[in-house]
Amino acid sequence: MKFFNILALGIAMLCINATTLTAQQFDTYFADRTLRIDYIFSGNHTNQMIALNEYAEWDGWAGRRTNLDQLAVAGNGDITVRDAKTEKVIYRNSFSSLFQEWINDSTAVGAEQSYQFTLLVPMPLAEAEITVTLYDNRRLVQDSLSHHFNPKDILIRNFDRTEKTEAEYVWKGGDAKDVIDVAIVAEGYAEEDMELFMEDARRTCDILFNYEPYRSYRHKFNILAVKSVSKDSGVSIPRKDQWLSTATSSAFDTFYSDRYLTVKNLHGLHDRLAGLDYEHIIVLANTDTYGGGGIYNSYALTTAHHPLFPQVMVHEFGHSFAGLADEYFYDTPDAFTTEFYPADIEPWEKNITTLVDFGSKWEDMIPEGTPLPTTEGANRNDCTTLGLYEGGGYQTKGVYRPTPTCRMRDNSSPAFCPVCQSAIEEVIRFHLE
Ligand SMILES: [Zn+2]
């Protein structure tokens, strides 16, 4: 549904090759500790800047220990950690950010703003060079920052002895270092709402594992319910002049869009999680107002008490966990003049194509004899008949999707399309194998 504006940038690449740093090599370069790096992304429509804000650390690393120097998908930004002495790449990860969405939004024209961002990397044993780069929708560098990191720096904020937010597993597949660790964070739940939060967290877990491929891989996940207490019940709705004191300070009306609920205070969100074992985040908002958002390798946010919660939660986690694109589009031809996906650039997201490099997408999954492009049949809930359907990524023309509908297109779709299922499975395996 139409409440988030995830950007579509770049060229798809899953580069697993013979030089991949394996789990066996993790201990050569990293301690079993987490290094959190807080950044500020700032700028305007034409100029962007990345600045380092602060380092933090704590015991344990819940992130992946394999494919350390590779990316699952390109993302709209990436981080690279190099050993300072040898310049060898020892860790990479990709992400997208709300800041990059904002600079392409009409509210950014003539404005200057800053956005918080946070990345987690395994703690390097030796001094390192860390580079963060943001890309625009033509894959051109918006800004890149390299900073030297010394693990002995006394200014790294240490969370080892800080009191952690109370947390409880609602699903445990294994030890944090062996599985994918998802934290469900309570947002807008007051002290007296915590039982309700635990019910909502268990329900979130059940819903997620009702979908393939999560169901088949459920033993490779940990789901941790994080009981971050809010002073108020509910979340902030600016258009109603409703401002509440909540654990992660989320608010609706992001970029003045009613249904776009986001967290801008990302450093604060990660403070709630400090010291816990987490690598992916679902913020659960205690409200029945419709909305949410999902940003690749940053977080998913959904509203727990709207009737469409199950569909929306799984959709948003599709963005934040697997970097899937929205397969919906706007029916009115001039509803959006912004070109999210330039015609001459293949998007990095696996579930849409501009046909620039269709061979790298689902071309080989389409049954022989299928007419391309493909026309939709009468079944509006068909999420299995693979083809090349025009419309996707907010655009009626020039962007194609794999099936008539999908969890990434419509709330009435019963499942993810086969292309999204395979993309999610690849991300799961990238974390583990
Ligand atoms: Zn799909």
List the helices and strands and how they pair.
Elements (H helix, E strand, L loop, with lengths): L22 H7 E14 L4 E12 L17 E7 L5 E7 L2 H6 L9 E12 L3 E8 L5 E9 L7 E2 L8 E6 L7 E8 L6 H15 L12 E6 L39 H8 L6 E6 L6 E4 L3 E5 L5 H14 L66 E4 L2 E7 L16 H15 L1
Parallel strand pairs: 2-8, 10-11, 10-12, 12-14
Antiparallel strand pairs: 1-2, 1-5, 3-4, 3-6, 6-7, 9-11, 13-14, 15-16
Zinc ion binds next to helix 6.
Describe this structure in words.
The chain has 433 residues and is an alpha/beta fold. Among the domains are: 23-158, Immunoglobulin-like, CATH 2.60.40; 167-322, Collagenase (Catalytic Domain). Helices cover 15% and strands 27% of the residues. Strand 3 and strand 4 form a beta hairpin. The protein is globular, with a radius of gyration of 21 Å. Bound molecules: zinc ion (ZN).
Radius of gyration: 21 Å
The spatial strand order of the largest sheet comes to 9-11-10-12-14-13
Let me know the number of strands. 16
Task: Determine the strand fraction and express it as a percent band.
Answer: 25-35%
Discrete helix count? 6
Say which CATH homologous superfamily of the domain at 167-322 is assigned.
Collagenase (Catalytic Domain)
Mean pLDDT: 93
What is the CATH C level class of the domain at 167-322, in words?
Alpha Beta
Ligand roster: zinc ion
